[in-house]
Amino acid sequence: MLSIGELLANTLSGDQQTREDASRQLEQAQQTNYPAYVVMLCQELSNEQTETFIRNSAGLALKNSLVSSEASRRNEITQRWLNMDEPTRQQIKQAVLATLGSSDQRAAATAAQVVSAIAAIELPTGQWTDLMKTLLENVTTTDNSQLKIATLTAIGFVCESIDSDILAAQSGAILTAVVSGARKEEPNQEVRKAAIDALYNSLEFIRENFDREGERNYIMQVVCEATQSADVNVQVAAFECLVRIMQIYYDKMRFYMEKALFGLTVLGMKHEDERVALQAVEFWSTVCDEELELMGEAAEAQETGEQPERLSHNFAKAALPEILPEEEADEDDWNVSMAAGTCLALLAQCVEDAVVAPVIPFVENHIRNNDWRFREAAVMAFGSILEGPEHKLLANLVNQALPVLIDMMRDPSPQVKDTTAWTLGRVSELLIECIKPDVHLHPLITALVYGLKDSPRIVSNCCWALMSLSDQFGSKETPQPTYHLSTYFEGIITALLETTERSSNESNSRTSAYECISILVQGAALDCFPTIQKLTFTILDRLDATISAQNQIVGSDERLAHSELQSNLCSVLTSIIRKLRTEVVPFADRIMTTLLSLFQTATKHSTTLEDGFLAVGAITTAVEGDFLRYLEAFAPFLYGALSNHEEYQLCSIAVGLIGDICRALQEQSLPYCDTFMNVLLQNLQSPVLNRNVKPAILSCFGDIALAISGRFEVYLEIVMLVLAQASNMRATDGVNLMTNYDMIDYVIALREGILEAYVGIVQGLKTGEKADLLMRYIDQIFNFMNMTWNDQEKTEIIIRSMIGLIGDLAEAFPNGQIKQWFQYDCVTQVLREGRSNRNLPAGTREVTRWAKEVGFVEATAV
């Protein structure tokens, strides 16, 4: 067998077979004897005589054996490392730490990654307690700049990858190390840059240090001084750090804004290096983000008659005259121009009416300038202030500007046309009342359709503007007989179809065109249906063509583009089916034939399946019980998706599709329910399937129960057991609220799914005259509702579902059999909430009214 060094070298070979053989042997070595494998990798990484590329490969292989993005795999990797004997682990750690001082910069940088990977495993378990002490000594007691850089890089990686609570106790040592390297007295600017990067990653868990004024002053001094470094890379890192500091510690920034930050960032925005200017602009965008959030909190507090917990310092309003645009953006500074536009848009939302007076003179002075840069900057500024100020203040300005903007869609500069199309989209989205259909609509749509023939970026913005018009004028619910776009509908669709025939999808232009077609279809009026029916066959013909071309595809890029095209076509098809509803029935056979052919040729990991399944879901709603004739042919693809646990989004869509099928077929779905239930229960037990699919599975039980009513009896016991087990999931550890917001969101979704399951089961068994089967589970249901109501994390869906479930139970047991459970406080409180909370949607209030009308609930609970 080849040595580990030779195998690593072969993984970089130009010969595919050699690469694959080497990778297979390395994987085998890892599986056969993991301790020996990592020791050999470590020896290669730390060997100063080994070539750089092999040392680098060894370090990356070592690091990759210690990390994983998948939770289950991560736990397995952690245990594998911790199960190794202590001397072996110590040997590896010492060698990796020593490699931080290597003269080979790439090897040292890779060693920093390995240090972080090991620390992420050991520090949470209370091991490697002297790590930070060692790293601190590396920075503060040596003149070896390379060692300092690699060590600071390692500290940055550790701070980035480990929970802040674990590192909080060592924040002092970390802060000492990074500030030591970041000071202006540090002669090596690469060391300084690494230190600033590490400080950026440590900001979350040095809160106690930041609370102390003396330490905070010193940190801010070091960062502000770094913005004035002679090295631009250090300046960029320092401004990035200031952005993060403003994001985390806004409340403590008033003194520093007055003394330094305002001046530094205003100068930074004018810096000749784009990277510095971008970060200085981002600083003010962050200020606006924070102050917008504080405005929202203040408004909520005012509604409840309370004082807000935090106050805005109104930095944005105070800085307004200094940070508004002064002159044009150079063509080379396009990114800065876009960032400035974003910042100005946030500023407009933040300071509202105050932004108009200083911006409009700039627009008026430059919108007809001979230099395209001035024209583009003027249009960008105008488009950026359309959200925030009062509509009354903007209406006259927009009315005056619209004819000018429409004419500018024929400007010789592509940058001007691009920004103009974006601005017209903003007007359509935010100030539709300013677009007078009899005056503006014809020239506006003509200009946007003309723009569809232009460069890809302009096409994307024209599509967005057309989508905004459709959203504003159209109706996605019950179609209107006609609407303002009816006259132009067929012409727009034709132009968009021509745009989609471009071979390239540069700037997402083709995808934008297909998305625009979908949005137009969704908002279309009844008099557009003939065009939509013709469009159906165009889309099906194109899908058939992609299926025929499937075997001619070569290369991963071409395959990805092909899959994306099929997904776009399926999305349009789904919109058509949902819009036409029963009018799509005559085409249903053709649609399903094409979709089944698509599923036959699609690869297991293709997103095409997801979009195709959504189209099938739309068909079930349109044809209802007639879908039975397609189910036998479709079922194998459905079961395959349900078993494809690696592609959890596809699996989740397939779960939803079971619900669609059961709703469409009702009792005709009964022959398939045993298979449906078995697959769903297996998926709940799967250790591989992403947990976010599981709430949808619980909800699906309710759909099945509703469809087969009393026949659900055979599944009742196992489903109620599953729901009881799922009810035990908490977002707290019994003492403190978890900081893992993903877990909180998951538990909320789980509870929503449980409630939807209960609603379906109660309604189904009531319809099947088997409600008495629920008596043994009434305690379980009401205890779950009581627990859910008393948890502070509740959504509107949970409240509405609880109210609906209470009403369903009252109807299912009209003779007082469960009267005592209706005395629960949660029943009274949730009904009162549904009746009195004006912030709840109309649908929730309607459900509450219905629940109150159920006589038993009225008498016993309200």
TrEMBL record:
- Assign the protein's first listed, main location to one coarse class: cytoplasm
Q: Where are the HEAT repeats?
A: 401-431
One Pfam match, given by its short name, reads TPR_IMB1
Which compartments does it reside in?
Answer: Cytoplasm
Q: Which residues form the Importin N-terminal domain?
A: 22-102
| InterPro entries the record matches | ARM-like, ARM-type_fold, HEAT_type_2, IMB1_TNPO1-like_TPR, Importin-beta_N, Importin_beta
The highest taxon in the source lineage is Eukaryota
Question: What keyword terms does UniProt attach to this protein?
Answer: Cytoplasm, Protein transport, Repeat, Transport
Q: SMART domains per the record?
A: IBN_N (SM00913)
UniProt cross-references to PANTHER family, sorted A to Z:
IMPORTIN BETA
Query: Can you say what this protein is called?
Result: 35055_t:CDS:1
Q: Please report the organism this UniProt entry assigns to the protein.
A: Gigaspora margarita
